[in-house]
Amino acid sequence: MKLSTLTDRIGATPLVLLPSPSPAVPILGKMEGNNPGGSVKDRPAWSMIRRAEERRELKPGITLIEPTSGNTGIALAMIAAARGYKLELVMPANSTAERVQTMRAFGAKVVLTPAAGGMEATIDFAHARLAANPGTYLMLNQFANPDNWRAHYETTGPEIWHDTEHQITHFVSAMGTTGTIMGVSRYLKEQNPEVQIVGCQPTPGSRIPGIRRWAPEYLPKIFERERVDRVIDIEQGVAESTARTLAATTGTFTGVSAAGALWAAQQVAGELASEGKSGLIVTILCDRGDRYLSSDLFADGHPELGELEIVA
């Protein structure tokens, strides 16, 4: 009998068929919500903690601190609890209640910064607290830590290559910290330089949790523009509508960034079909829709939702 730890169960997520505008260009979604922490961020969180331990940067008595929009924080909180570390997570005040409560359930301290400042404000706050308390905190710094993308180079990319039987032609991914797209791009391009890497970012003014349109001074240091063949802008309303439609018509329950990436993949598939070409697209379904239930995403009034009948 093989006994597995929590971290042993990170990765090896399935690929499922998703709606495509053309049968000649199937779209497969990698179900990262199946990770024990419920998102793709389990992979880099474990990679960053494990390697910090190996380098002796992280040891008993050190408190981890990290700015996060949600999923990385939840993954870090889960693993920190399992490994016995204290953790402080800094996030915007408009983060969903599910995220905040999940982090606290794992024993993490949550610091909420003004919503108007966005992720930039959380990053600044975390760095200031780190600087003011030398020797007390360690920031893994997902935006600059190569152990972030390395997790996807070592696991996500190889899984996709294997499970598509080397037939993948396009990889479509949301870009937040950019760790997923950087690691997968490295791996897939080594196997086949013709695989096209497509990144997704919000249109100006759109707010999509997990996807960022970074100001130049905050662009993640791990990001290398030459590793992305194309960038597609996604409107917030389109991403949200796609998430609701996907759940109501296919039973696939995802978050907004995952739905936005699917919409982008559908645009790519439509373009290929219009040119008479075939292909195989893989996109990352980075988390589950239950992390958004307290937001307006699935609130009453959207036509995609099922009816509600209350019997007195």
UniProtKB/TrEMBL annotation:
This is Cysteine synthase B. The modification N6-(pyridoxal phosphate)lysine is found at residue 41. SUPFAM superfamilies: Tryptophan synthase beta subunit-like PLP-dependent enzymes (SSF53686). The keyword Transmembrane does not apply. InterPro entries: Cys_synth, Cys_Synth/Cystath_Beta-Synth, P-phosphate_BS, TrpB-like_PALP, TrpB-like_PALP_sf. Pyridoxal 5'-phosphate binds at residues 71, 176-180, 257. The keyword Amino-acid biosynthesis applies. It is an enzyme of class 2 (transferase). Keywords: Amino-acid biosynthesis, Cysteine biosynthesis, Pyridoxal phosphate, Transferase.
